[in-house]
Each structure stands twice: as C-alpha cells, then as structure tokens.
Amino acid sequence: MVQVIKSIFYLGPLLFGFGFLTPLISQIIQAVGWTLPFGLTPLMTGLIVGGTYGLIAQIRGRWI
Amino acid sequence: MSPTQDLSNLSDAELMRMEREVAARHLNKFPYFAVFWAFSNLAIWLALWPLVFMGIIPLWLGFIIATANVTLSYLPSHEAQHDIIAKPGSKLRWLNQLVGHTSTLPLVLPYQVAKITHMDHHKHANDPDLDPDYSTHADGPLHAIWKSLYNRQPRANGGFNAYGEVLQRKGRMDVILISVAYQVVHFGTLFALAWSGYALEAALLWWIPRHIALTYIQYYLSWAPHNPGLTKGRYRDTRSFRSILGNIGSLGMQYHIIHHLHPRIPLYRTPRAYWEMKPILEARGCDVHAL
What's the domain range around A34? Predict the structure, then answer.
C-alpha cells in the first residue's frame, strides 16, 4: 500500500507544474497585462514555464 | 520562592517535589482562549474566500489575513494534542477532539498525524533517529528557515516526509491514508480553483500562506526552543529563549521548556509557571539563561 501511495505522489511535481503553476502563471501575465513575444498566449506561456519548472522539479526531486 | 533563589543545595527528590507543586498550580485550567481562537481563526480564514471572491476585500489584504490565520492555526490543535482542553473520558472530550481536528485544516495537517508525531517528539526530543522534528535542527536562524523550506521538497527526508516514515514505522497505515486524503483534497482544490480562473486567489489565500506559516511555525515551535539540540533528557532537550518578536510573536514559545516538562500546562500559563519554576530549573542545570 505504501508503494502504491508513493507511486501516486511520485509524479507530484509534474502534476503541480501543469495543474497549478500553468494557470497561475497564465493569470499573473493577464493580471499585469504583459505583451508576450512570438504570438504566445498567456496559457501557452504558463504551460511552457510551469511545465518546464515542474519537469525540472520532478527530475531533481526539489523545487529550490 | 524568589526567581533568583539558589536551590542548588537541594536534593533531586526535593526539587522534584517543588517542581510538581508549581506545575499543579497551572494544570487543569480550561484554555477558554485557545478554544475561541481555534474556531474564530478558522471562521475568519473560511470567510476570506467569499469576501475576496465577491470583491468585498482586496486580495492583498486577504493574503495578509490568511497568512496570519494559517500561522495561528496550529497552536489550538497543539493544546488538543495534549488533552489540555479535555482529557479522554471527560464530558468535554468532544470539544478537545473538535478543536484538534478543525483548527489545522488550513495547514493541511491531520490531527492524528500531528498528535502521533508530536508525542514521539516529546518522547525522543533531539534524538537523530527517533525525533520526528529532528530535521529542523540548524546552525542558525537563516539556516533554520532554509531547512524548513528544504525539508518540504518532494524527495527530502525531513519535515512531513519524516512524519510519513514515523507513521510507517508505527504501522499506522490508517493515518497515512488520512494524510493522503488531506493532500488530495488540498491539491485538488488548488488545481480546480486555478483552472476555474482563480489561481491568484488560491495562491494568495492558501498555497503561499501555508508555506509561510509552516516556515514560521517550524522556526519558532521546533528550531528556536531546541537549538542547539545537542543533548537529550528531561532537563536538557529544550530551553527558554528571548525572541525579538516577544512571546506573542514567537507563538508563546519563549517558555517552551515548561511545555516539555509539563505538557498539560496550557500555553497561556507557561510564562507564569516558568517564572515560578525558574530557580528549580537553574538548580537542575537547564538552559534558562536567556530569560
């Protein structure tokens, strides 16, 4: 059972990156009214930044 | 007894008798304020959500209040963990358990987890292998803040991750499952709010306040009263200390030594108990020089 729980939580950083950081970054961009380069939308930027940060945290096992 | 009285010539038995006499004056006092604190603090935190969502108060103000709420959410549960509100079998036991279970909801800390690991902390304070809070030990204030943040990282061995190990060692799969349920609800709520267009509200009313609160709580409730934490034993594993934020700013922890010696003395009585007990503590060789 412990192994099952650990497996579920193993992907936590990646899930957090896409599940929370992505919309958070997107809504911060919208709130401050930033104009993004290369035709990027706030959500695309959120996905790139949040997803990448989550992936890095997933690999390293730490956010900081 | 004067706070400066020298009792070093008394026997262990005599010191223990005097210590128990002082403690008895502060035990079995109903902590009215802690009960009021528990429910009012939770009510304010819950009220922040509709107040911010409806634009009645600005988000920045909600963030400040939420940070205070989440930081203040632990201590009423701590009173409950030690059965200070009501002992098992007593008429008000339900109130003790209600405070314990509800007050730490903003902190996403199940009462059972807090109680089991905290009892182990009292039993094994400063033991590198058995104290669940040992990972908060640090070389100084900034290091303590760093350790608190570091211990919260996904694959760190300390902090709540260490609590999981303790529960596993004790065979408390039931409590681990409760903890998992809390995490699923917490992150599920954050994700749902974020994808519904309320990511900033979720971040500033719960996610960031919780991280600030955990750092503050671990600094003042775990690191500061046990620093340097090199020795074990009833009169050696904690101390009194002076905080630049005073006793209230340090969440009442300046007199933490009283709590470890007599855990059922309510938080609000520990300063008085400390000053009454100080000559005894000095005679015992406790680290009580800061106050």
Answer: 2-60
User: Side chain identity at A46, as an amino acid letter?
Assistant: G
Q: What is the pLDDT of residue B184?
A: 94
Residue B195 to residue A62, Cβ atoms within 8 A = no
Indicate the residue of B150, B176, B200 with minimum beta-carbon distance to A31: B200
Residue B58 three-state SS: coil
Overall pTM > 0.90: yes
Average pLDDT score over residue span B9-32:
95
Q: A with B: how many residue pairs have Cβ under 8 Å apart?
A: 60
**Do B72 and B41 touch, CB atoms closer than 8 A?**
yes
The Cα–Cα gap between B181 and B108 comes to: 10
For B124-169, how does the pLDDT look when each residue is reduced to its tens digit (9 = 90+)?
Answer: 999 999 999 999 999 999 999 999 999 999 989 888 888 988 999 9
Residue ranges of chain A whose CB lies within 8 Å of a chain B CB: 1-2, 5, 8-9, 12-13, 15-16, 19-20, 22-24, 26-28, 31, 57-58, 61-64
Closest in A1, A15, A58 to B173, CB measured? A1
- ipTM, 2 dp: 0.93
Are the CB atoms for B132 and B121 separated by under 8 Å? yes
Cis ω for the linkage preceding B228 (within 30 of 0): yes
Please, which residues bridge with residue B2 across strands? none
**How many domains does the structure of chain A reveal?**
1
- The band of B96, judged by pLDDT with boundaries at 50, 70 and 90, is very high
Residue B287 forms beta bridges with which residues?
B239
Pairs from B135-143 (Cβ < 8 Å, separation ≥ 24): B135/B159, B135/B162, B136/B218, B136/B222, B136/B223, B136/B226, B137/B223, B137/B226, B137/B227, B137/B228, B137/B229, B138/B223, B138/B227, B141/B219
> Would you state the pLDDT for residue B154?
92
The shortest CB-CB distance from A62 to any of B155, B168, B202 is to B155
Q: Which of A24, A56, A63 is best to mutate for the B interface (most B CBs within 10 A)?
A: A24
- CB neighbour list of residue A52: distance below 8 Å, 6 or more residues apart: A17
Map residue B287 onto helix, strand or coil: strand
